[in-house]
Structures are given as structure tokens and as C-alpha cells.
């Protein structure tokens, strides 16, 4: 007997089919748990169901294959929620239940969050921009975690003293690409505004920048925030820079603010390049030229590596490096005469 009813009204089927770009018959097969639907197609239908706000039928609610912890530094920088959303999507697609743990000033530390996750019996942990990226932090904590039999993977940041799989963007290439773009626009005095120098991604960005400018470009370290970008850019403007490369999109917003406080227009007087291509930064004023992190590719690689470890098939303990992409928008232009 068919299970059609309120769950499968014609209007509902049509909405889901249109959103998932499949036929209504395919939607019906997925909702009824029938075989004969490709895994990727089934995932599109389930995603459409979620996006449109429909509740999944009980028959489609799978038992979790286990808990996977996801430890991220914060939620105020849009790049971290962007990573978290994609990682959680990939984990859920493999039947795992993600447990999001966010650090905040005065809150739980990474070590405390890890201890809570281990106590809950997580199957594995994904670290995003964690202490593994901080050269002042003790890497032995990850050796201890491995000794407790908890597989993990590390995103954004590399430490040769940690035996694990790392997934990173090519930070050095990003600043090289940004400098080349600005030079092609005629800029000669180009500055770099980045976060604290103890972080591996920052050091790599600086190395790429200095190599491309042959050591001539000024570098200013500050906080990874709008206020940090504003302070760093103000110092670079004092040094006569007509273009600023920033270590994050948030810092780039601060750089634009610093320019405007001096009566300078972006990009007519000062060009600004961000880093991350976080959601919404295409809609700033002006739309931000930035280096895009390949979030989906990096998240997929990290999840796949972790699942291989969980399955007893250890992948190579090395760093997988992904190339950033320059996205040219409205915050860069030719150097003013």
C-alpha cells in the first residue's frame, strides 16, 4: 500500500523535485526508502528536504555511525562557520553525527574541549585552525590524543612534530598571487597586514609576500579582526602604501575602514585584497577582491582522511596543500596617478 499522504502531497513533491533538479518519481522513491536511486541523487533530495524546511520521514532517519568532534576557534569570522557547515555535511553524508565545539575568550580551551569529546566517546576529531597552527603551543597534546586511540585530522596549520594528516591552503602562494595582481595594476608600494607571527599560516603568508616583493614590502602584524586590520592598514598607509594585502577578509574590512577615515577612497586611492572569500564578502562596499580558500575540497579531503583512519586504513601522515584562487572584485584598481 502506498505511503502517500500529507508527507507526499503533490505540492511538496513538486517543490522538492524542482529544488533537487530531479523528477517527482525520484523524490517519491527517496522518501519511501526505495532502492534504485544513486547515492548522489539521494543526497540532493535529502538536502532539498532540509533546505525547504520539511521534516524527514522516520524511515529516513538513520542511526548514527558515531560522533565526530569538530573543534574550531570561533564563529565571529565567517570562514569558520563556512568550514564547519561543509564538514558537518560530509560527515552526515557518511552517517556520522558531528559535535561542534567552539572556543571563545574566557571559555573552554582546546584541551578542555578535547577532554569533553573523549569522555563522550567520539570516534574521531577534526581540528580547524587549532593549537597545531600555533608555534608557541606544545604539540605533545596531539601525541597523547593519538595514544588514547582517537583518530584526528588537522586543517590550516602544519607542525612536523605531529604525526597526523594535515590539510592546508597554500598560504605562501596566496600572497604571491595578490602581489602580482596589484603590480599588474601599477602598484609599487604594497603592504601586508596579517595576524600574530606565531601562527604557521601567517609565517607562510609573510614568506610568500617577502619573496615576491624581494623583501621590499612592509609587513604589519596585528589581530585577526576588523580592528586589527584597521590598525595594521593605518600603519601601512603611513608608510606610503597604495595597496594592502590582508591576512583575512575581516582584516580587509578594517583596512577599508582605515582608508576611509583618512578621506581615501577604495579602490580609487587605495587597493585592498582580502583572504578567505567568506560568505557575504562579495556584497561589501566595495565588493572585496580576495583569495578564495577551496573550502569544499579541503573539507572533503579532511573528512575522507579521518574516515580512512577510523576504518583502520591510515593515510599518509603528511600535508595536503590546496591552491587558493584570486577572485577579482571592486576593491582593487589601477594605482592612482
Could you walk me through the main structural features you see in this protein, from its secondary elements to its overall organization?
Strands 2-1-3-4-5-11 form a 6-stranded parallel beta sheet, with helices on both faces. Helix 4 (79-93) packs across helix 11 (295-310). It starts with 9 loop residues before the first helix and ends in a 10-residue tail after the last strand. Helix content is 40%, strand content 16%. It is an alpha/beta fold and 337 residues long.
Question: In short, what is this structure?
Answer:
The protein has about 325 residues and is an alpha/beta fold. It is about 40% helix and about 15% strand.
Task: Lay out the secondary structure.
Layout: H1 10-20, H2 24-31, H3 39-51, E1 67-72, H4 79-93, E2 97-102, H5 110-119, E3 124-128, H6 140-147, E4 152-155, E5 165-169, H7 171-184, E6 190-194, H8 200-212, E7 219-221, H9 226-238, E8 243-246, H10 249-261, E9 271-276, E10 289-292, H11 295-310, E11 319-322, E12 325-327
Parallel strand pairs: 1-2, 1-3, 3-4, 4-5, 5-11, 6-7, 6-8, 8-9, 9-10
Antiparallel strand pairs: 10-12
Number of helices: 11
Mean pLDDT: 91
Order of helices and strands: HHHEHEHEHEEHEHEHEHEEHEE
* Helix fraction by DSSP (H/I, runs of at least 4): 25-40%
* Strand numbers in spatial order across the main sheet: 2-1-3-4-5-11
**3D shape:** globular
Which percent range describes the beta-strand content? 15-25%
Kindly provide the radius of gyration, computed on alpha-carbon positions and rounded to a whole number of angstroms. 23 Å
Distance between the termini: 77 Å
Largest beta-sheet characterization? 6 strands, parallel
Low-confidence stretches: 1-6
Number of strands: 12
Q: Which class do the helix and strand fractions yield?
A: alpha/beta
Amino acid at each position: 500500500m502506498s505511503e502517500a499522504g500529507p508527507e507526499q502531497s503533490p505540492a511538496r513533491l513538486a517543490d522538492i523535485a524542482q529544488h533537487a533538479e530531479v523528477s517527482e518519481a525520484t523524490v517519491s522513491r527517496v522518501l519511501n526508502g526505495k532502492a534504485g536511486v544513486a547515492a548522489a541523487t539521494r543526497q540532493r533530495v535529502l538536502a532539498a528536504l532540509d533546505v525547504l524546511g520539511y521534516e524527514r520521514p522516520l524511515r529516513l532517519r538513520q542511526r548514527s555511525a558515531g560522533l565526530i568532534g569538530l573543534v574550531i576557534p570561533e564563529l565571529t569570522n565567517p570562514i569558520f562557520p563556512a568550514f564547519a557547515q561543509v564538514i558537518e555535511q560530509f560527515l552526515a553524508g557518511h552517517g556520522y553525527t558531528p559535535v561542534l565545539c567552539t572556543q571563545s575568550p574566557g571559555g573552554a580551551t582546546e584541551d578542555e574541549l578535547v577532554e569533553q569529546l573523549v569522555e563522550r566517546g567520539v570516534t574521531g576529531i577534526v581540528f580547524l585552525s587549532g593549537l597545531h597552527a600555533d608555534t608557541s603551543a606544545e604539540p605533545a597534546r596531539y601525541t597523547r590524543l593519538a595514544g588514547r586511540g582517537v583518530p584526528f585530522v588537522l586543517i590550516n596549520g602544519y607542525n612536523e612534530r605531529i604525526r597526523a594528516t594535515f590539510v592546508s591552503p597554500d598560504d605562501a602562494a596566496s600572497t604571491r598571487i595578490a602581489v602580482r595582481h596589484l603590480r599588474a595594476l601599477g602598484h609599487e608600494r604594497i603592504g601586508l597586514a596579517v595576524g600574530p607571527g606565531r601562527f604557521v599560516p601567517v609565517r607562510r603568508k609573510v614568506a610568500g609576500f617577502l619573496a615576491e616583493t624581494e623583501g621590499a614590502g612592509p609587513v604589519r602584524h596585528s589581530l585577526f579582526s576588523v580592528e586589527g586590520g584597521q590598525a595594521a592598514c593605518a600603519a601601512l598607509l603611513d608608510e606610503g602604501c597604495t595597496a594592502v594585502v590582508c591576512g583575512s577578509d575581516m582584516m580587509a574590512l578594517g583596512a577599508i575602514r582605515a582608508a576611509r577615515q583618512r578621506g581615501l577612497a577604495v579602490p580609487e586611492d587605495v587597493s585592498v585584497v582580502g583572504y578567505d572569500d567568506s560568505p557575504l564578502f562579495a556584497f561589501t562596499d566595495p565588493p572585496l577582491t580576495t583569495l578564495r580558500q577551496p573550502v569544499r575540497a579541503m573539507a572533503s579531503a579532511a573528512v575522507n582522511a579521518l574516515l580512512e583512519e577510523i576504518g583502520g586504513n591510515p593515510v599518509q601522515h603528511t600535508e595536503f596543500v590546496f591552491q587558493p584562487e584570486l577572485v577579482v572584485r571592486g576593491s582593487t584598481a589601477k594605482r592612482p596617478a
